[in-house]
Amino acid sequence: MSMARKKAFSRVRWSSRQRDRIILVACVVVVAIGLVGLVRATGWEEVRAQIAGLSPMQFVGLLALSLVNYLFRGIRWHLFARRLGLDTRFGQNLRHFLGGFAMSVTPGRVGELVRMRWIGRETGWPVERTAPLVLIDRASDLSAMGLLLALALTFSTGVIVGALPVAALAVAGAVIVTRPALLARLAIWAYGATGVLPRLFVRVRRAAQSLARFSHPATLIFASILGLIGWVAEGFSFWLLLGWMGADIDMWTAMAIFIFSTLAGGLTGAPGGIGGAEAAMIALLVARGVPLEVALPATAVIRVTTLWFAILIGLAVFPHAEARSRKGAHAVETG
Asked: Using H for helix, E for strand and C for coil, what is the string for 253-304?
């Protein structure tokens, strides 16, 4: 690559990073303004008292349940990596998975594709061969959350309006992105309709065909179980939190609200679902009779112990993953 092209690429990459940061900051500011306004309308003292009433051990319990989610989903990532044919160790795959959390707040979470760069450096595999990992991982989360939402609604004493369509959409999306033949045909159709970027569509088609490696029933069943356990842990933590704050709400309803709000936030495309998830969670809690002075701090705390805790872990692991990948790239080149 010429020096001029390197400089141009560097400028584009820096511009993209700046845009992502601006979008993230804007989302956080808007959410903060909204929450502050609600807190002021509700009363600072009530909200502060609810948060102050939680003990350090209760916070540790919430974080521990989030760790259960990350660990089981990390095991699933390792399963998919080995199924794809990567000769990578569990610790190596877990490092990639957790380090990617640092990029969760990029729009649409596309920043998590940094995992593909790390794998490429350490194994020499091109992106089009490892891209199916991202697709199958996201599809597994969608299907697990969709099934859990449907299950929670079945056992819940009430009906949350609009939740069933979201559950159906999540499962349908998971099915679509894991159908290799369908995705390959879509890539061919898209190229035929646009006639542009032929190399990109060839890569997309190859990546789609690689998904066939994950269609083994045992793999899909085990992956679904791992995903369900992970998301049940975080939904359960939300129910515990509400109970500690004095909310009279059953476990399945709390779990349905948590899963639905997380999905709703993701569908907005905002970094980390910021804004959409919080708004949906507060609205649904209030609709189920939870006082606003409880719904507000509960939403804030659960987002800190799930989304922001994951980002913190990602930021801690990211430099280590980057350094190890650079060493791996050197080993691949000299080997």
From this structure: HHHHHHHHHHHHHHHCCCHHHCCHHHHHHHHHHHHCCCCHHHHHHHHHHHHH
